[in-house]
Design a protein that fits this description.
The chain has 2 helices and no strands. The chain has about 55 residues and is mostly helical. InterPro entries: DNA-dir_RNA_polK_14-18kDa_CS, Pol_omega/Rpo6/RPB6, RPB6/omega-like_sf, Rpo6/Rpb6.
Length: about 55
């Protein structure tokens, strides 16, 4: 897993939570229903399909 700054981590998790709340498929098996909790679980398992481009 790549090392992200706290700002990158917040942006990735927030963007993924928004995607989930808008109906995107969930990438992990979980019983959680809150989009933010699901996004955190996906981030911990390193399965979020979002990349960070740095200058």
């Amino acid at each position: 897993m790549e090392s992200y700054t706290r700002y990158e981590r917040a942006r990735i998790i927030g963007a993924r939570a928004l995607q989930i709340s808008m109906g995107a498929p969930v990438l992990v098996n979980t019983t959680r229903t809150e989009p933010l909790e699901i996004a955190l679980a996906e981030f911990d398992l390193d399965v979020i399909p979002i990349t960070v481009k740095r200058k």
